[in-house]
User: Fold this.
Amino acid sequence: MRISDSVDTTWMVQSKCKEVRIDYFFEDENGEWKDYNLAKSTCETCPVRAQCLDYAVFIRDDQGMWGGVAGENRRKLRYKLNKTFDSYIKTYEEDIDFVAWQIKRSSADTVKNTFLQ
Ligand code: SF4
Assistant:
């Protein structure tokens, strides 16, 4: 079983980006955004923004805009989380569901405190 198997994805049905062309949410091969501000503002009014960012950090997806945060900042957030949750993983490494739940719960708190104010 992979950790990501136990992550909830039901929030995706409420994604606001379903109303916008998906290529607005990714950089092209030259690293240029088609419309960064459009992607960012769509995320800022999305009802599932926190869940989206939490999910992208959790599955280690560093491409494009998720939850209003571009890949480079999500890498930084993940680095912080990896340090924070080292002790959980060492202690409970045999219980993958528990580790997944702890990371998800605390990731959501970190997202709220760091990026969604
Ligand atoms: S936060 Fe942004 S990328 Fe995530 S589901 Fe909402 S609109 Fe889409």
In short: The chain has one domain: 3-115. The chain has a mean pLDDT of 77. The helical segments are 36-44, 49-58, 71-84, 86-91, 96-114.
